[in-house]
Specification:
Layout: E1 3-9, E2 13-14, E3 17-18, H1 25-37, E4 43-48, H2 51-63, E5 67-72, H3 79-95, E6 101-107, H4 109-112, H5 122-125, H6 128-137, H7 141-156, E7 163-167, E8 181-184, E9 209-214, H8 249-266, E10 270-273, E11 299-301, E12 307-309, H9 311-324
């Protein structure tokens, strides 16, 4: 893989939940410097809801010499509001005047945007019976592609750099309006045996393929849950886990490195590990309140705002250093 990336969340709002409650520019510079110098990444996917936070983090990353894949997230908005927001963010990205910015005009919109499938909130749309219909009927693809075509036209009017979309594996995207094929690509029980093979169809458009998310949570059994391993926080008490879990940082590290090896052998142009940190999911001594177990982060965050590396941090740093010749 020619690109060694990681996701950096500046704060994504989903209902009342904000993934980074406090945003501090100095802390962000420190984090992004660590991403460059200690993790040996050369690219960062800057994601989140607030435009000011997105631009601040992007400017810092560019100043540090990192390539930036700018990725606004406006969860649970309708198509019109989502379209207006992505065009506004693209115009702001253009104003930075950097050739090192790639713009992602959305991510997994079948799930995160209202209007493609039933349900006013993400959690309503994720209900099992609706997900089964989604997989087997595929009725979401036509309205999704209609929206993406319109959004790509709107973004191209204000942004001259590379443009793509972070798709979900259940989405059959028409990639003709885009420069790069992107997919958030986790491994779980369902695709463990053919994880690499299922990636084959994404090469069919003949464009570079980039995995915009790949990761694993930090508890034993998370390797079977893939992209929904986060759903172990008690919905009735979001300060506690729904059930007892066993911390396993070695498993997290081994799982992510194995997936990266498969992706490299399959010929992807790059991958963004998900994610650097999850400040709203802090590590605590009480196992029932150790929300970091539900985190994909390569670092453990604490209630006082500091973080410490997990085993995945060191393993990823070693791998990236070898690949980058550092």
């Amino acid at each position: 893989m020619s690109m060694r990336g990681i996701n950096y969340d500046v704060g994504t709002r989903t209902g009342p939940f904000l993934s980074r409650p406090v945003f501090d520019a100095a802390q962000t510079r420190d984090d992004l410097t660590v991403i460059r110098d200690r993790l040996h990444c050369d690219a960062v996917r800057v994601s989140g809801t607030g435009l000011e936070r997105l631009l601040t983090a992007t400017e810092i990353a560019l100043d540090l010499g990192l390539d930036v894949w700018l990725s606004p997230h406006l969860h649970d908005a309708g198509p019109a509001e989502t379209l207006a927001n992505t065009r506004r963010c693209a115009a702001a990205a253009q104003s930075l005047g950097s050739p090192k910015v790639t713009y992602l005009l959305g991510g997994e919109l079948t799930l995160f945007m209202r209007g493609i499938m039933p349900g006013d909130t993400l959690f309503e749309r994720l209900r099992p019976h609706r997900m089964l219909r989604l997989r087997y009927l595929g009725r979401h693809n036509r309205p999704l592609n209609a929206f993406l075509a319109e959004a790509a036209r709107a973004v191209r009017q204000v942004f001259t750099g590379p443009v793509s979309y972070a798709s979900a594996p259940i989405e059959r995207v028409d990639w003709s309006p885009f420069d790069v094929v992107c997919v958030d690509y986790y491994r779980g029980k369902r695709n463990r045996d053919d994880y690499g093979e299922r990636l084959r169809r994404h090469f069919a458009p003949g464009k570079p393929v980039v995995v915009t998310e790949v990761g694993c949570c930090t508890y034993r059994g998370a390797q079977d849950k893939g992209g929904i391993a986060w759903a172990v926080v008690d919905p009735r008490d979001p300060d506690r886990l729904a059930r007892p879990l066993v911390r396993d940082e070695e498993l997290q590290a081994a799982e992510v490195l194995d997936m990266l090896g498969i992706l490299e052998r399959r010929g992807v142009a790059g991958a963004f590990v998900f994610t650097f940190a999850a400040p709203a999911l802090p590590h605590r001594p009480d196992p029932a309140r150790d929300l970091d177990l539900a985190s994909y982060g390569v670092v453990r965050c604490y209630d006082d705002g500091h973080w410490e590396p997990k085993r995945l941090f060191d393993a990823l740093a070693e791998r990236n250093a070898r690949q980058g010749g550092s």
